[in-house]
Task: structure prediction
Amino acid sequence: MNIKAQVPNTITLLNLLSGCIALVYATNANYEMAFIWVCIGIFLDFFDGFFARLFNVSSPLGLQLDSLADMVTSGVAPGYVMFRMINENMSLPFEYFAFAGFLITLGSCYRLANFNIDERQTESFIGLPTPANALFILSLPLVLKYTDSLILLEILINPYILLGICLLSAYILNAEIPLFSLKIKKNFNWAANKLQLSFLVISVVLLALFQYAGIPLVIIFYVILSIINNRFFAKASL
Result:
């Protein structure tokens, strides 16, 4: 047995385990630990591909395994957390609307399946990647817990706004919106990487200023910046 070939798959399975642990914590309403374990899973998701390329052992099995692991960590976990958030704030007889939280799971599933066969997404993304969407959703109960803003509090306990977030999430995961890659080009000069470096700098500032609330702001900023880049700069560089 080729040991090197099993390293990326083992990391992928650890990503899956992280998603399962996150679900256990979410079941107990420990959203902070759920968020941490989803972050660990996303971190592992990056490195399984890294080691597959490093050892030159990329395989169709690894590709499918990666999507199945992401389905739990970045699909089921955020869907379940949103289900709980809506359920905790939805009064009778409308409690069944909480199941709309799993629209996030369905949208993630469709995106992951489509990503495997979409040859346009080798260097950049079309639609929001599932890990970014998962971070957005998992950060919401933490923003709710730690915010001092009455406006944010009212927004995040409003079940109808949460339903809207579910619909928007499922849409943006699969929307035909090109999003720029965060990979820094090898020459590492400003001209070639100004978009990525500018985004990273502003993201650090947002996270430093707003802590957990900075996470959804960073994701929203990423989408908006990509749209602006597509509209005004990408075509000009052709």
